[in-house]
Amino acid sequence: MRNPVHRPALLSVLLALILTGGCAGEEDAPEAADTQPTPAIRIVFFGDSITEAGVFPGGYVTLASEALTEQYPGGTVEVIGAGISGHKVPDLQERLDRDVLVHDPTHVVIYIGINDVWHFYEFDHVTGTEREVFEEGLHDLISTMQGAGIHVSLCTPSVIGEDPASDTEVNRALMEYADISRAVAETSGATLCDLRAAFEDHLAAHNPDKRYEGVLTTDGVHLNEEGNRFVADLMLEHLERLLEQ
């Protein structure tokens, strides 16, 4: 024999569920989403193929992100790589809005300059960036980001060939562009990250045979495993000083 259904009691329970919102459902989702932390620090690395490759496992962007996430747990830091192969300063100007400003970063690290020089010497159907255009473009990038309240770090271009003392025309030109970056950082108020100087010191000690590649790079430009660790350490040291301020 079936147990009798006590309809008044059942109706009372149903009414209570309706009035209190019932079981967890769609209306609870926004409240759960609101508990997700908003990163207090958002860093964009902005550059060329070196930075594009830097987001892969073992790349300098990924290594820096992993270290910063460990140092600042709880979702308080986010790192974004915004590198595109072959890009130069004018390319960065063109995509600043869609690849950087859209993320509302607190900090941007500009690592550019290799292709602005290299493309004058090594490639067909492309050209580098004239010195005046390079300088003016850097100033434009920095002032636009500073106007948006972003702290900007400007890196000097690293190396084209792992003998920084080489007297080749391309190396002499890269040294000039590194000097332009240093001057732009000083006059614009951007924080300088002097990768070029760090590479020079390291290679002077670790490349006695003056090899073109194989110490920090795969081809004289793009970073190998050791080069990615080297640049990640430099970036972390640079950023940690800024974040402590």
- The proportion of residues forming helix, as a percent range, comes to 40-55%
CATH class type: Alpha Beta
Helix count? 11
Quickly give the CATH architecture. 3-Layer(aba) Sandwich
How far apart are the first and last residues' alpha carbons, in Å? Answer: 78 Å
Query: Can you tell me the overall shape?
Result: globular
Total number of beta strands: 5
The CATH homologous superfamily: SGNH hydrolase
Please trace the helix and strand order, writing H or E for each element.
Answer: HHEHHEHHEHHEHEHH
Provide structural commentary.
The protein has 245 residues and is α/β, with parallel strands linked by helices. The protein has a single domain, classed as SGNH hydrolase (Rossmann fold, 3-Layer(aba) Sandwich), CATH 3.40.50. The chain is built from 11 helices and 5 strands; from the N terminus they run ααβααβααβααβαβαα. It has helices at residues 7-19, 29-33, 49-54, 60-71, 89-94, 96-99, 114-118, 131-147, 169-188, 195-206, 225-243; strands at residues 41-47, 77-83, 107-111, 151-155, 191-193. Helix 8 runs parallel beside helix 9 (169-188). The chain starts with 6 loop residues before the first helix and ends with a helix. Residues 1-33 have low confidence and may be disordered.
